[in-house]
Amino acid sequence: MAVEKSNDILCLFDVDGTLTHPRQKIEPQMEKYLQKLRNVVHVALVGGSDLSKIYEQMCGNSGNANKPLEELLEEYDYVFAENGLVSYKGSTLLGKQSIANFLGEEKCQEFINFCLDYMSKLIIPRKRGNFIEFRNGMINVTICGRSVTQAEREEFAAYDQQHHLRKQFVEALEKRFPEEYGLAFVIGGQISIDVFPKGWDKTYCLRWIPDNFKTIHFFGDKTAVGGNDHSIYVHPKTIGHHVNCPDETMSILSDIFGL
Ligand code: M1P
């Protein structure tokens, strides 16, 4: 018997660690599951990463891995990249925020120069390239360089767990760029720090979700204080679900929706 689709329930998913393993492609089983879920509720993604990374990860490895971006966007009701600072309803762009406009050129350079200077003094097991990724709504800073290989990424993540380099970097940033700069510094993924204006965290995406959604289930892995899923996980508009990996996401979904 066909189950009727519920128009007032939205399932909103973080990407890394929730639908995929960190920075990995979605598994075919999860890809299929999400489309099955979309037959019964509305489905949306909210990632800290920019749209190109979300696209790369969510296209997966299965049959149509090179599908056009529009096709991927149409597979979800909403896709919120960079916390919703770049937002789509299907393949229609809803809005794009600009950290460059927020800060102005002088403060942008002050910030970038401080980061490069700070990172230049650190000796770590391996450094590569692309230390600052300037996105639309946020700046992503990576001590080892974003162009590390997967093995080098894992190595830095383990080193950081032991030596707390990112935590110390965040403390230095908070000291150098106090309240009046209006910036938040968040340890989002495995190797980097996300920097954005206060309030442009994952709750930013909620402004695009219409009131007809009476229930918004949010699923994320970085839900603890300081994690980039925390603000939306505890937000009064959402029912937060903490997960440790994609398998756990699927298991909670089958408990709730019986799929
Ligand atoms: O999990 C979301 C994060 O994914 C990446 O983090 P990292 O490369 O450090 O694992 C980044 O895209 C980051 O902006 C994002 O929040």
TrEMBL record:
Its EC number is 5.4.2.8. Pfam families: PMM (PF03332). Its main location: cytoplasm. The active site is at 14 (nucleophile), 16 (proton donor/acceptor). Pathway: Nucleotide-sugar biosynthesis; GDP-alpha-D-mannose biosynthesis; alpha-D-mannose 1-phosphate from D-fructose 6-phosphate: step 2/2. GO terms for cellular component: cytosol. One of its GO terms (molecular function) is phosphomannomutase activity. Alpha-D-mannose 1-phosphate binds at residues 23, 135, 146, 153, 192, 194. Keywords: Cytoplasm, Isomerase, Magnesium, Metal-binding. Gene3D superfamilies: 3.30.1240.20, HAD superfamily/HAD-like (3.40.50.1000). GO terms for biological process: GDP-mannose biosynthetic process; mannose metabolic process; protein N-linked glycosylation. Its cofactor is Mg(2+). Mg(2+) binds at residues 14, 16, 221, 233, 238. It is found in: Cytoplasm. It catalyses: alpha-D-mannose 1-phosphate = D-mannose 6-phosphate. Belongs to the eukaryotic PMM family. Involved in the synthesis of the GDP-mannose and dolichol-phosphate-mannose required for a number of critical mannosyl transfer reactions. Homodimer. This is Phosphomannomutase. The lineage of its organism: Eukaryota, Metazoa, Ecdysozoa, Arthropoda, Chelicerata.
